[in-house]
Structures are given as C-alpha cells and as structure tokens.
Amino acid sequence: MISITKDIIDQLKILEQLKDNSSGAVVFFTGIVRDHNSKEKVEGIFYEAYEEMVEEILKKIEKEISGNWNIKKFIAIHRIGYLKVGEISVIVGVSSEHRKEAFEACSYGIDNIKKRCPIWKKEEMESGDSEWVQGVMINE
Amino acid sequence: MISITKDIIDQLKILEQLKDNSSGAVVFFTGIVRDHNSKEKVEGIFYEAYEEMVEEILKKIEKEISGNWNIKKFIAIHRIGYLKVGEISVIVGVSSEHRKEAFEACSYGIDNIKKRCPIWKKEEMESGDSEWVQGVMINE
Amino acid sequence: MKSCHDTTLKIKVFGIVREKLKSDTLNIPINNNSVSLEEIKKYLKEFYPYLSKNEINFVFAINKVIRNENVNVTSSDEIALIPPISGG
Amino acid sequence: MKSCHDTTLKIKVFGIVREKLKSDTLNIPINNNSVSLEEIKKYLKEFYPYLSKNEINFVFAINKVIRNENVNVTSSDEIALIPPISGG
Fold first, then answer.
1. Which residues 90-119 in chain B show a CB within 8 A of chain D?
2. Which uninterrupted H or E stretch holds D11?
3. β-bridge pairing B71-79 and B2-5
4. What is the pTM (predicted TM-score) of this model?
5. Residue D5 has pLDDT above 80, yes or no
6. Hey, is the C-beta of D66 within 8 angstroms of any chain B C-beta?
7. Which CATH architecture has domain B2-132?
C-alpha cells in the first residue's frame, strides 16, 4: 500500500495493517520533523509534491521491492502540507518472514523515496524566516 | 531503555518513548510469533530466559550501540512466557538524527539479542505436539 | 491566416520555482506542433530570468517520467519542471 | 572429622535441559573449596545421562558471563548451564 496524504499519519493503524500471522518480522521507518537544521531552530516544515508523479514512483518502488525481496506487506506513505516539529512526514513499513529481508526492503524503500520522489520542503524557522531546503537532483 | 518482561508489549507506548524532537528518524523492529515453522502449523511459543543474564547483556548491547552510533534513544524489550501467534516477542527501536544510524543500530540490536541473550523457545503446534527450537551456541 | 502562436504548452512548476515565479504553471506559446526540451529550456531562461541563474538546476518530467534526452513534446504532454528534490 | 561432601554447587539449567532433567537447579556435591568447569562437566555427564548425549551441547556462564576456559568456581559463584539459544 502506497500513498501521498495531507492527513496525519496514524502509526498504530499502519502497524495493524502490516501485521500478518505468517510474518516473523516487521521493520518500520518514520521520518519526523526535527526541531533544528544545521543552523537554526525549526518550527515546522511545509512539504509540497508533484503528487501524481510521486504515486507513480511509489508504485515502481513497491514493485521493485516485491521483486527483490520475499516480503509479505509493504507500506509507504508520504505526508504533504504543513507539519509541526515531531510530526511524521514519511513512513515505510515492511513485514516478512525473516528480519534481514524486512530491514533491507525498508531501507531500500526510504532511500529510494528520498532519491526519486518529486517532493520539496520549506523549513519555517522559529525566527520567522523560511527557506526551501536545497535538495538533490532527482535520480529516477 | 532495556528490559525483559512477562507483559504484552505495547508498541504505541514504545513509539511514544522513542519520540524526540531533535531526532529525524525512528527505526523500529518487532519480532512476531509466526503461525508456522518449516514443517508445521504453530499455535504459540513459550519463551524462557536466564533473566538476570539477559538484562546484563542487553545493557552491554545498549552501551555498544551508544558507543558506535550517534543515536538519541534506544529501546530493547524481550517478552517471555507463553505468546500466541501474532504477539510480539521482541522489539528494538532507535531514534537518531539521520536514518542510516537508526537502521544500523536497530539491526545491530536485534542481531546481537539473537546471538548473545540466553533465551530459549518451545513451539506449541496446532497438532498438540511441542518442541524446543534447536538454537545456536551463545556467542557472548 | 494562421496565427503566429498556435498553441500553448503548460509547464507545471513546484517548490522554490513555483514560489519565485508566483505561479504553478508556466505557459509557453509554440509555433509548431512539437518542440524540443532544449527549445523550452532556452525559452524559459530567456523569459524567466530566475531560471537562468546558476544556482537553480532542473530537469523535465514528461508524462511523469524524467527525460534527460532532448525529446520533442506537444501540448498534449504533461510537462513538469523538477528542481532538486528534498522529500523524506 | 570432615564430611566427604562439604559443599554443594548449584547449577541453574534452562529450556530443554530444565525440562528433561525436571529441575531448574542441579546440585553437585564437591569435596574442595573450588572445582573446575571440566570437573563439573564430567560429573554432570556421569550423573545426568541426558547431558552426555551428543545432540546436547552447552557452555557455562559464571556470574552471568560465558566462560569458555576451564576456570575454577566455588559455591559462592552463580553457575548456569547454557544450551543453544533461540531468542528473538
């Protein structure tokens, strides 16, 4: 299950959805809005996406993961809009029989979301300033 | 925070405890009682531990992790007693500024729990049979 | 008599580019049925000085696929300008 | 006159060993103040035939630390027999 959403990400619901009685391992990654960047205190982050393209790429990543690892369930959700410090921006969860696969697939998922999804963020500082984060060229 | 417990593991509580506004990443592993082994349907698993020694080793692992990775919080809990299919036997969670550290530390945590903690399990099959799982020599 | 500018290409823009140019779509008038990405780039850099600054790098996505080659596009294609990304 | 068996070492056992031997503690009478792990092993294998079977491998933990060397222990040490582990 993959998606891009404006809603608060409900971790417990996702943990429930990952549950599978034939799986022995669940690995779960969450990205959280930090209270600082390298220079300043941060109050929140505004995320913007080319939504339709992000969904296409998330589908591709899901397919690559199912092809490369023997996993049971895969969930990847990226939130957009304004998020306060401590809120979850992205979540990647994998369940599988054995933990090695779950770790590898989860790590592949988040790495590829960051490398390939057209999403942009603007940090809103405590000082009142705001700044678009200098990103990396898309590698899709 | 490390512990060995007879109680049901409350994932949401642990996710809350891992939360830290200065951390950008949380990685979370759960081991779950599977409904099968290589031959048979499983109904539950009985876990037994040399509890005091497990706690010593969990403390060591925690210390190694704090020494080797720049992380914010580390939680490792192993449950003992009788667990039904779908219940969580072990949980390892890490929060850190960046995801690489969280993935590595979490994976190190569960690998070392499996290699070094004196814990034993006996599978209770649907057939009514039960069997101690052939383990690995402790590597502590 | 045919008008000089028959068609308009719409280019989606996001993030810092959308903000700086104060629009989520850039319109490019074209004479022909199709036009190459290089020509679009040239046009954009001419009419949107912000995009000719060195610090803003971008690639195009055509129909939600990144195209690094200099392909031709028409007004029926979905074209987007993708500056450096920072999701996660 | 000193008794032949002055002291008793207590050995904690777990898992399949505990179940097979129907006890979580094995008592070993010793003559001296201290005894080596090799001697304990020899005694256990003699008096608990289950432990001399090939399929059951084990090591000792002394005061919660695995000791592979043939150290000496006394009755004040916490001694445990650790068969292959299977946590997680």
1. 90, 110, 113-114, 117-119
2. strand D7-12
3. parallel
4. 0.94
5. no
6. yes
7. Alpha-Beta Complex (3.90)
